[in-house]
Amino acid sequence: MKSLIAEARRRFDAAGFPDAALDARVLICGLLDLSPTALLLQGDEPVSADKADRVQEAIMRRLNHEPVHRILGRRDFYGLDLLLSPGTLEPRPDTEILVDVMLPYLAAMVVQHRKPTIVDLGTGTGAIALALLTECAEARAIGVDISADALATATANAERNGVASRFATRLGPWFANTPERFDIIVSNPPYIRSDVVPGLQPEVTKFDPMAALDGGTDGLDAYRAIAETACEHIKMHGVIGLEIGFDQRRDVTQIFDEAGFSLLEARRDLGGNDRVLVFAPKLD
Predict the structure, then answer these.
(1) How far is 142 from 179, CA to CA, in rounded Å?
(2) What CATH class has 78-281?
(3) What SS3 state is found at 8?
(4) Which of these, 94, 91, 174, 104, lies nearest to 130 by C-alpha position?
(5) Could you give the CA distance from residue 8 to residue 209 in angstroms, rounded to a whole number?
(6) DSSP bridge partners of 170
(7) Cβ 231 vs Cβ 284: under 8 Å
(8) Which of 59, 130, 215, 220 is deepest in the core (most CB within 10 A)?
(9) Where are the domains of the chain?
(10) Are the C-beta atoms of 143 and 154 separated by less than 8 Å?
(11) CB 247 within 8 A of CB 213
C-alpha cells in the first residue's frame, strides 16, 4: 500500500501538482478505505490485483485533473460525509465559515423557544443546510436547486447523515417554487465573473457544474436575484447568510441595502479575504 502511495506521489509530482503528497495519500487511502492508523499498521501489506487496478485507474483520472474527492465520490464537510455528483459543486472548507457564522443565530432562536426554519438556496450537496441541521436539532430545512441531480444527491446526503426527517428539497430557481417565509436564508451562490471562469484551474472548469460557478458579467447576478424577493420570504427577526467572493463585500452590501436589508456581520476567511455577510431586514 505504501508503495502505491509513493508511486502516485511520484507521478503527481512529475505532473506538477502542488499537493502531490497529500493527493496521493488521500486518494489511495480513500480507495482502500484505510484510516491513518490502518495505514501505519498495514501499510507494508500487498493489495489484491483488482484493488491495484482500481488504484491505477484512479491515478490516471487524477492525472487528467479530476479532483481527488470527485474520484472518491465523497467529501468531508463540517464533519459530515457527503456524496458528490456531476450536478453538485464540491464543498470547500471556506464554506464552513458560513456554517460557523450562522450557528449562533440558530442558537439564539432556540433560546427564544423558536424552531428555526432554514432555506438553502443553491443547495448542491446539501452541505450548508445539513451541517446546520446536524448542529441544531430543533431546526428544519429546505434545500433549493435548479439541478434535479443535485436535489437527489442532497436527499441522499440527508439520509446518510441522519437528518432526512428534517430536510426537504425543492426545484429552483431561487424562490420560484418556495413561497414560504424562513427564519434563516443561506446561500453559497455562483459568484465568479463570466470572463474569469475559463481561466480557472481545470479541476474546476472540467468537473464542477458551470451553473454553480458563473455569476454573470459582474459575478453578482445571483445576489440580485436573491435580494429581489428575499423580503417576501424572511420572517420577522430573520437573517440572511451569504458566501461571497473576496472582492464583493461592497457590491453585495449595496444590493441588499437597496433591497431593504442591513448588514449585521461580515466574516473573513483564513486568508484574510471577505467571505461571509449576514443581513437582516431594516426596521421600519
Answers:
(1) 12
(2) alpha beta
(3) helix
(4) 91
(5) 27
(6) 144
(7) no
(8) 130
(9) 2-64, 78-281
(10) yes
(11) no
Please identify which residue in the block is written with the cell numbers 443535485: 150
Give me the sign of the Cα torsion angle 213, 219, 221, 227: positive
The sign of the dihedral angle between the CA atoms of 206, 225, 260, 111 is: negative
SS3 content of the chain, % helix, strand, coil (to 5): 45, 20, 35
Sheet holding 261-268, edge to edge: 167-171, 140-145, 117-121, 182-187, 234-243, 274-281, 261-268
Count Cβ atoms within 10 A of the Cβ of residue 26 and give its class: 0-12 exposed, 13-18 middle, 19 or more buried: middle
Distance CA 125, CA 150 (A): 6
The pLDDT of residue 77 is 97
186 dihedral zone (left: phi>0; alpha: psi -120 to 50; beta): beta
The two beta strands, 167-171 and 234-243, are: unpaired
Q: Which helix (H) or strand (E) element contains residue 55?
A: helix 49-63
* Ramachandran quadrant class, 26 (left: phi over 0; alpha: psi -120 to 50; beta: rest): alpha
Calculated CA dihedral for residues 223, 137, 149, 198, nearest 10 degrees: 40
How many distinct helices (H) and strands (E) make up the chain?
Answer: 11, 9
Q: Give CA angle at 12 (269, 31), nearest 5°.
A: 80
The pLDDT assigned to 35 comes to 72
According to DSSP, the β-strands at 261-268 and 234-243 are unpaired
Mean per-residue pLDDT pooled into runs of 10, the chain (284 residues): 86 95 93 72 70 92 97 96 96 96 97 96 98 98 98 98 98 97 98 96 95 96 98 96 97 98 96 97 84
CA-derived radius of gyration, the chain: 20
Q: Residue 118's beta-bridge partner residues? A: 141, 184
